[in-house]
Amino acid sequence: MVVCLLVGLVLFASTTAEAYCPKTTVMSETFSRTCWECMFPLSLIGVTVFNLDEDAVAPALGPGLSAIYPPQMCGCECFTPYLCVPGLPMGIFMPADLIEVVRNPLCFPSLGGTDLGTDPTFIDRGMVDVSQDDPALKFSYYHVHFIIFPLWYLLGTGFSYVCTSDTMPTAMDIAYMSELDPSWSDDAFALTLFPEGFLFANPIATAACMVDSVASAVSYPLDPLFWCAGSFGNIYPPSGYTSGSYSGQVKPAALVMVRVLAKLARIGSETDWEIDGTGICFDVPTFLIVKTQYKFQLLYPIPSFSLPGEPCCSPLGRTQLRWGLAKT
């Protein structure tokens, strides 16, 4: 049995004053742009067996309650409740998704600068503006495209996992476009899908995110603080609008990346792949984002690369000072 932890690959599109859709070579240069060391650490039977200075939470334990009683074997392919094909629980990060964050609607930089034409009047265009009440507070608006991108399979190097072969995608597909989501441009409408947002979309709940920010800066974010995106900000309301005084585009774009992951988790599209215990054989819907199962890497305009003592990929919410300097 294999426990899969997903890697979020993030693409940030550049901004220009006019409606312009940048053309990138992300697809043709995927192999050279990808930080392959991000797939580590590799754990087997609950023990980390290989690492390259990459961050990780506790290795997958498999069936069991704690690391005190790690499993030796597990079985997911069963003929009867008592007759199963034996296997070993393994944990690894897999490049699975590509998320592009763009200003111009219907613009797909990762697909060679494909522009689907003039956007309808009901689609808002990305912007950076200054609040009339406080000129120091800027707000930004971005569109997001969530692309299923199983890189290992596309390159013909994918592993065939018995326990995940039925649910793991093997082809590229566009799973979400914010242009077609009316709640993406309406904060109030977005909260109808996330009614708990009325409790967390406020300064007090946002202040609690400082704890999550510290945790993600040194290790991984805290899943119990599901409304927080670490140093990126508050996930609620899950729309394309972000507020705050931002320098550049990286931080607000990273926030809407986490928001779309949270939105897809709510509707059951993004599931929990790292669950231990009885759920180790399945990808389990949680309807709340499981932040610790993701790492992300920048691909455009300036791809991430390894620095001495620093991981190439970062967990959700990690401070921009460690991964996003001079990236805009």
What do these coordinates show?
With 328 residues, this protein is of the alpha+beta class. It has one domain. Helix content is 16%, strand content 23%. The chain is built from seven helices and 15 strands. It has helices at 30-33, 151-154, 187-193, 197-200, 203-207, 209-218, 250-266, and strands at residues 2-12, 42-44, 47-50, 74-80, 83-87, 90-102, 107-108, 114-115, 127-130, 138-141, 143-148, 173-177, 241-243, 295-298, 314-315. The strands form four sheets. Strands 1, 2, 3, 6, 11, 12, 14 and 15 form an eight-stranded mixed sheet that branches. Strand 4 and strand 5 form a beta hairpin. The longest helix has 17 residues, at 250-266. The chain is globular and about 60 Å long. Mean pLDDT is 76; it is low at 1-17 and 61-70.
- Cα distance, first to last residue? 41 Å
Regions with pLDDT < 50 over 5+ consecutive residues?
Answer: 1-17, 61-70
- Estimated radius of gyration: 20 Å
What's the helix-strand series?
Answer: EHEEEEEEEEEEHEHHHHEHEE
Number of domains: 1
Shape: globular
DSSP helical segment count: 7
State which percent range the strand residues make up.
15-25%
Structural class by SSE content: alpha+beta
Kindly report the average pLDDT value. 76
Total strand segments: 15
Roughly how much helix do the residues carry, as a percent range? Answer: 10-25%
> What summary fits the major beta sheet?
8 strands, mixed
